[in-house]
Design brief:
316 residues; five-stranded antiparallel beta sheet; four-stranded antiparallel beta sheet; globular
Amino acid sequence: MPKQEIDGDGLFNLALAIVGLVLKSGGIKTSELAEHFAVSEKVIQKAVFAITNSEDLTSPQSHFYLNYDAFEEGIVDFSVGGANLEQTPALSRYQQTSLAIGLEYLASLEEFEGNKALSELRAALSGEVVNRVVARPSVDVDELEILRQAILEQKQVQFDYINQLGKKSQRRVDPLRIDLVGNKHYLRGYCLDSEALRTFRIERTSNLIATETTISDLAKNEVIPDEVYGTGEGELVELIAENQAGEIFWNFPVAGPVTKKDGKIHGFIKVGNIAAIARHVVRYGGAVEVVAPDSARQAVREFAAKSLEGTQVADE
């Protein structure tokens, strides 16, 4: 489902991407750009206006001039103004290396084995020397394929699930999207049991089956937030994380800026359940510190104590 809205950073990045495509290929239909970037045509229009409204602060000259006649006919085309660009902007060495590392990681996943598009991208960046990054996915590849096929065919799925607090349940879900965050796979979909959009960590599912029931119209109209857990509602938790544990800020709605402080990452997240945050913090082995509130700090202490008790029993 295409995104209907996009934040400031996303709009800026989208505008840059559109610049590259249009400079390389010439005029492109708004509908084609929307399909290419998986956003609505309204979002494409916003990005185009962001491009044409950009100016050099040292002179009253626009970077690009939009061909408004073509735009009214649904085609994005512009000429270079004060930007002094005659070709597609090139990636920096840092950007190329970062992309190459990400592609190496994807190539190590079983589900991307033999993927032609991925191979072509890796070849295009072969000038950069990067360390081999190998993923160790904990998700069954066949299970991922069942989910992907169900999403393509818009069919409901059923499975057993263990949530963050260890509670077991059976779920009926209209699957909408699979997200890969770090090395963990998440199913985003409309849960018919809770009647709301939910996120499920796929490694916690079992007995997964695809049904012949078509997903509901309600599910088709859902807008999936970028955050893995929730849409920003819940209690505020202040965290400080080591660099290697910074992904915790990807998994929750962030409140306010995430900044570097004394070489560590500092910020606020929102969680729907204070007790659930403990499981996430403890698994980083001390690399994440809960600053506030006290209820969240206490939840982490209690969870860690129970975990240590379990370890001692196992050792005996």
